[in-house]
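Support request, priority: normal
Reporter: lab tech (M.K.)
Component: structure prediction queue

Hi team, I submitted a job for Sugar ABC transporter permease from Haloferax elongans ATCC BAA-1513 yesterday, and the status page still shows it as pending. I've pasted the exact input below so you can check whether something in the sequence is tripping the parser. The sequence length should be 315 residues. Please let me know if I need to resubmit or if it's stuck on your end.
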Amino acid sequence: METLSETQFAYLLLAPALILLGVIAVYPLVQTFSMSLFADQLTGSARLGEFVGLQNYIDLFTGARDFALPSAFLPTFTTQFPFVTDIYSSALMVTLIFTLFSVLFETLIGFGQALILDQDFRGRRWVRVAIIIPWAVPIVIQGMIFFLMFQPNIGFLIGTSDNPALLNQLGLIGTTPLRDTADALFLIIVADVWKTSAFMALLILAGMQSIDRSLYDVAKVAGASRWQQFKLITFPLILPTVLVAMLFRTIDAMRVYGIIETMAGCQTVPSLSCLVVTTFNAPLYGTSATVAFVTAGIIAVVVSVYIVNFASEGI
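Reply from support: The job had stalled in the queue. We restarted it manually and it finished. Here are the results:
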């Protein structure tokens, strides 16, 4: 080992982790891609299990299999504004909408919670515990809580056509929201934000507390306002942590399944993971593997965008 360079020694230390990663991540991904190249019951005239190359991908992106799937993969495109129809019937669009709004609001709320928890006040420890509680709730229990809250004749936040509740009167949801795709997706985003904003808060808070406090003392001596301290000290130094936290949440949100299944069901709110699970249970293994590999590809593109941002920020 004494003859190894620093780079070679670093790779030697990383070798066990890379081997483990290859076994639990790369190998299943390769197997998934391999399975997607073979026919299932929906692959035209090909025999079951016959090698068909990229035909499964072609059928998926052209919509040739939408008639047999629980939901379409892509939305319907038109030549007129807004150029896309049937957004909520597309598993891809539902997943992207969920990811966009859930990660956005979780980051904003988590950032606000972190700013509060970073202050020195009496009872701060108890407030931290209270914020963590939603994140500690299992997804199944979380889903059942929100399911019962918005179930007609049971939930206290939902009314009837004769006696609408406040949310109904404001036009935010209908009287049977968990049976309507748009309403159910809205409530699922709310449920996910309620649970996971605590995760964002904890990550961002950890980054805030790593900031050298002497920087704030110097800023106060220089006469900087609270807003200037936040703009010139807190935000630039916490930005790498925020981007990493958003990356983790984006990857997780793209794979959303449990909260959908427990609240409204995949028939009402389709997602990419719902499509994978449903086709796998059909069993349509070739189609399921195709959707799974495409989902992994989309996540890889999203991760690449984050990495480019990391590089531009010098992270």
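The chain has a mean pLDDT of 84. Residues 1-28 form one domain. Let us know if anything else looks off. Ticket resolved.
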